[in-house]
Amino acid sequence: MTVLNPRNESGDVLKTRFMGARFRDEIRTLLDRGEDVRIDFSGVGAISHSFADECFGDLFSELGADLFRERVRLAAANEGVRAVLRLVFADRRSKETV
What we know:
It is a single chain. The protein is α/β, with parallel strands linked by helices and 98 residues long. It has one domain. 57% of the residues lie in helices and 15% in strands. The chain contains four helices and five strands; from the N terminus they run ββαββααβα. It has helices at residues 17-32, 49-63, 65-71, 79-96; strands at residues 2-4, 13-14, 37-40, 46-47, 72-75. A three-stranded parallel β-sheet has the order 1-3-5. The protein has a two-stranded parallel sheet with strand order 2-4. α2 (49-63) crosses α4 (79-96). The longest helix has 18 residues, at 79-96.
C-alpha cells in the first residue's frame, strides 16, 4: 500500500479543482498499477468541497463505493475534512440512483 499526503507547498488548505485533479491523477496512476492507496491527511487543516469533489468524488464514482473503500483508505483527517468528504460521497451516491 502506498501512502500519500495531499498537503502541498501552498500550506494546509486544499482548495481548488485544479489541485484536486492533479492529486486524483496521482492516485489513479497508483491504482492502475494495482497498488492500494492510503491518503494520510496529517497536517491538512481544511479541504474545499471543490477539491474533494474533483479528487475523491470522481474516484468514488469511477470505482463505485465498494471498490473505493477497498482500494483507497482515508486516514488522519480532522472533523472538518471528514465532514466535507461525507458531503461529497453522499452527493455522488445520490447521483447514482438517478
